[in-house]
Amino acid sequence: MTDALNAPGGLSRRRLLTAAGALGAVGLAAALSGCAADDPLAQQARAGDNKNYVAGDGSVTEYAKDTRKPPVDFTGVLYDGTKLGSKDLVGHVTVLNFWFAACAPCRVEAPELEALHTEFKPQGIVFYGVNLRDEQGTAEAFEQSFKLTYPSFNDKDGQVLLAMSGMVPPGAVPTTLVLDKQGRVASRVLGQLERGTLKTLITSAAAE
Length: 208
Hints:
Glutaredoxin, two-stranded antiparallel sheet, alpha/beta, six-stranded mixed beta sheet
């Protein structure tokens, strides 16, 4: 495993991620309009109150190609009833975002994820949410409120989360994983993401 801030040759990567993070912060401020700007839980997350969720530390980790663990192996059900497995994702760079509706930072980053999904969809990069707590009605209300067009797994039974053991700490929501085209975890954002940083991680995985 290679931390993006400590990997050999990591100076250029660190500069890249730092620059991307700075751009992401600017983009975040611009994106928080409409329902996101007025959302009290989103405001709570920006205030740093850390209520109703276990906050990640915001760390960004990349895993070198030759040190990645074997492809993840899971099967789950989307809220529309579609059964989907990890094998269906092979050949695509995949973004998995672990969330639930009452998670304040999930509300802050929702517009960022949707913007990146829209940007990368033409390149064949796929996005899926993994909802860990909500009933279907609650999850769908969240998706409608934030105009999310990518689907989410109903993971109240924890099957997808269990398959990510060691990559997604239980209760540390949000967490975002980028899977390479083989289905291996290429990078992880633990905690609220920044758009520019995640864009850099996706672009890096797509270029492999």
